[in-house]
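Good morning N.,

You mentioned wanting to compare the apo and holo forms, so I went ahead and generated the holo version with acetoacetyl-coenzyme A. This is what I fed in:
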Amino acid sequence: MSKQAIGVVGAGTMGQGIAQVVLAVGREVRFYDVAEAPLERAKAGIAKGLAKLVDKGKLATEARDAALARLTPTTSLEVLADCEVIIEAAPELPELKEQLFREMSKLAPEAILASNTSSLSLTRLAAVSERPERVVGMHFFNPVPVLKLVEVIRAEQTAHATVVQIETLAEELGKTAVAIVDSPGFAVNRLLVPMINEAAFLLQEGAAKAEDIDRAMQQGTAHPMGPLALADLIGLDVCLAIMEVLQDGFGDPKYRPCPLLKRLVAAGHLGRKSGCGFHAYA
Ligand code: CAA
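and this is what came out, ligand included:
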């Protein structure tokens, strides 16, 4: 018997990557966004991502076509009602996510509701849902088809069975699951984003050039890319939001966001997505 469909909410970079990996393992994906245009863009991105696998001989052309045929883009949330799991990857706006969790828990009472949030409290999202024991964090990393980790975040209300089901799904997707309780920044962002913030301080102080800070960490610690280039990939607005969540959540001044990071965000220099951040992009 074929497995149930997976719902993906939000057709941005993360939603696109998540949909791609779910399609690639043979599941149907119901892909929701409020508008057609982002869904069209994401579908084209998924086709491109799967084409890379075909080019490398890791996926047959027929399998790519079948994967794309399993994708149902929709602007109606009701279409996701019979999904086993709905993975929410909407923008990091608390009111928007809370509204989605309220609605999803009503229209899909049997589904597990997983959020890909990189900074918000799962316990708060569970609290607005009608089935808090079925709410959990499923945090992927960008680029999703490439990076193996999924953080599985347990809210205060999450049932053990929910965590186990999400760990099993992560494994089915070829990912490594790491379990963590709900706390600001979870594990990776609590370690990674303060490092990025500190790199911004180094740059602000004029201690080294952006290229040299990045080269130092690449060649001195074998990171695949330097912290400032990584901030540009993640989005400077996302990095700033995570620093604010850490500062707010722990009340510790060591998490103060670097003024240069704040200034760049205020100027709309958000990294790759806006064409300019710590570095400029063509
Ligand atoms: N679908 C399928 N495969 C893809 C793909 C896609 N969409 N995108 C890239 N790939 C594949 C490429 O085909 C390539 O495969 P091979 O090695 O088999 O040829 C491989 O992935 C690497 O891609 P590239 O050669 O294009 O690029 P690269 O070697 O320069 O690596 C990178 C680029 C993967 C981004 C690497 O620099 C990297 O891992 N950087 C660190 C990224 C990171 O730390 N991300 C986490 C950010 S934090 C986060 O996401 C969480 C949060 O909440 C903020």
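Residues 160 and 250 are 26 Å apart (CA to CA).

Happy to go through it together on a call whenever suits you.

Best,
F.
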